[in-house]
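Subject: Protein record for review, amino acid sequence with backbone structure tokens
Category: Structural biology, sequence-to-fold work with a learned token vocabulary.
Format: Residues in single-letter code; tokens as whole numbers, each standing for a residue.
Body of memo: The sequence and its backbone structure tokens, given next.
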Amino acid sequence: MFTANVGTTDRILRILIGAGLLVWFFMDHGMGPWHWAKAAFGVIVLGTAVLNFCPLYKVLGTKTN
């Protein structure tokens, strides 16, 4: 479906950052727009790691694998 363009090191960093943002989201009880931005960015970053594909890399013609 997608051509993999995220390398192993990049993938591990994305998993750590995405999981960290989601943990921060659930531990923090704020309700402002930045609170929800943490969750959205965490899901996007974690999703790109799981799919091993980054749409922004595709647009920019970049690969880390």
